[in-house]
Amino acid sequence: MTVSNTGTVPVNINGIAATGSDAALFAQTTTCPSVLNAGQSCTVSVTFAPTSAGAKVATLSVSSNAANDPVVALSGTGAIVVPPTGFTDVTDTSGVAHASETYGASWGDVDADGYPDLFVSNHRTMKSLFVNQHNGTFVDIAPTINNFVNRPQADTHGASWADFNNDGYQDLLVTIGTGNPSEWYVNTNGKLNFETIGSGFDISNLGGRTAVWLDYDGDHRLDMLLAQYAGGAKLFHQNSDHTFTELSSAANLHCKRFHYAQLVDVNGDGRLDVLCPDEASFPQKIYDTSTFPWKKLYDSAKPAAFLPLVHNVADSAIADFNNDGQMDIFVLGGVQNRPSSVVQGGTNRIEALLSGGSKGFKFVSTGTVTFTIDWNKAPEGGTTDIARIQIGANGVHPNSSTFTLDPSQSNVWGMPPAPTTVAQLPLMQIGYDKTAQRWTLAIVTKLDPNAPGGIFSQGYIQVATSAPITGLQSTGLWPTDLPSRPTLLMNHNGTFADVTVAAHLDTPVQCGSVTTGDFDNDMYVDLYLACRTGASNIANILYHNNGDGTFTAVPNAGGAAGPIGLAISDGVGTADSVVTADYDEDGFLDLFVTNGFNLQPKYIGGPNKLFHNNGNSNHWIELDLVGVNSDRDATGARVYATALGVTQFRVQDGRYHRWSQDSKRIHFGLATATTVSLTIKWPSGLVQTFPSVAANKLYTLVEGMAPK
């Protein structure tokens, strides 16, 4: 824009500025002096730097002592070039390489050195605790922890970190299956001490899953809600002597048979409510914890209008996806937690997980076929009952759970007769149709195929053939065994709207775990999904948040697609969980994925994967919150970061999801901004604002003090 003084006297230029909601996106430079003499001209240049896609507008005004000040409308359409998101698999060089069953992972800081450490439960094998060495590597100190060593095959189902006694060290609660108490480790100066006995957690009739920490009564001491799969939720109130008392009934808490809980403010009152999902319904229940007993806000038996009910849920994530200062919800729904699947690998292999119901598969092959069966090993430690495996029209039994059948032998021709009594069930029936050259494997769990219910059955079948396989077809799979679209619920002042289609997230997926984070530091929260079938690993998915309400899948998940192939014969397992942390403190969030979701054959599982974020030129800020008049973890604190006209929002909510915990450190991407204004609303009610905080730094923010 050219500014000219066509008059006869000097003009004083008092200021040049852009105004409007998008003003920060229009940067100005000028050659105009403070006094523009008669007959002189100067220029004002405007650079448009969008931080998100879509139309942007502002008004440019020149303030002077002239009779009429020039005003120019500015507009632009954001079609920004986003620095690419890229990850590198550093598993083998980082020290976290391990393969086993898993059941979740959790980032914490065991030695209080400010670098994230990592606990992996490994289910029925020795737990791992990887301690960060500050150089991109980790050391597993599990062998130095007595109770880890003494109980190497404990039935672990996830863990969570919290500084329960406000001493500056993160303590660890490891949940255990029914019949054993949880493992409670109190952290004393960086050493985990087993203190379950006498703590109040020494209850053995629990089917423990994720532990969620919150200070529901505001006494600055963290209490604990334990998700249970074998029963109802348990609420443990922390006493003044740091023991715990179970108050589930008194709290009117009635969540049942669920894997995890999450903390989310659904009613906009500034407090975190407790959301219990379950495999059948999301949410099962929501409770307002501001009064005691707790007040039920939502019940899936009579769903409230403010939140659509989602069925068959594997995992969920909570974040502010559109930077409106409200907590939104992404749900992996419409799928079985452990889907039945039949998958072909190469030309000569099949692996199948057949769980629940009368299911099976058919395939064409002319050569010999070797079956390896792992089926209904109940109780744990049992063996496959080969007397329930029938082959050919005469229903002969194999000699072991691994056997080879030859299509030229008449004893494999035809299918065994249908069962006539419930006592015969379940059955696995195998036969060969010599005319069609087709093999059939069918698990029968009920006499009437059209009747509901059926006898329990879960089997993992491996098939290897001497001749190529064609025409593979699964039979009897349920709709929830197949890929399904996830659900994105956007929070509009306490009413959640399903915007999945509009967000371009409606492609069916078969994924079991989700995490969120601004992985490219462009100021918008992205999604990462860990994906699998029941019998194979498939590519993980990274959805980039475009900043206009839509998401785009990044090819190859930016390098974090993970191992792909058959679970057992390819050694890749099946994806279990993903957790995120900036483990090397370079300002970019990294990913850790466990692949040990498969439980059959026992103990095999799959490999861990650590994906390092390659970063880009965008800026960032990270915050460790320390409560003083709140619990030390500052549970429920709300943080607002404003830069380039965009205000981002984070909540200290513990970062829980199924069996897992992301790093609790607050992270903001800042795009091109080199400073940021921060506002923190502490659980105590204190509000602090810090303008112009320098970017590209990790700050410790103690309640009532300035960042340092």
Task: Summarize this structure briefly.
Helices cover 1% and strands 43% of the residues. The chain is built from 2 helices and 60 strands. The mean pLDDT is 94.
Low-confidence stretches: none
Distance linking N and C termini: 43 Å
The spatial strand order of the largest sheet comes to 30-31-38-33-35
How many individual helices?
Answer: 2
Tell me the helix content.
under 10%
In this structure, how is the largest beta sheet organized? 5 strands, antiparallel
Instruction: Bin the strand percentage.
Output: 35-45%
Q: What is the mean predicted local confidence, pLDDT?
A: 94
Helix- and strand-based class?
mainly beta
Rg, Cα atoms, Å: 29 Å
Total number of strands: 60
Choose one word for the global shape: globular
Structure description:
- With 708 residues, the protein is mainly beta.
- It has a 5-stranded antiparallel β-sheet, with no helix packed on it. It has a 5-stranded mixed β-sheet with strand order 34-36-37-32-39, with no helix packed on it.
- Strand 48 (577-581) and strand 49 (590-594) form a beta hairpin.
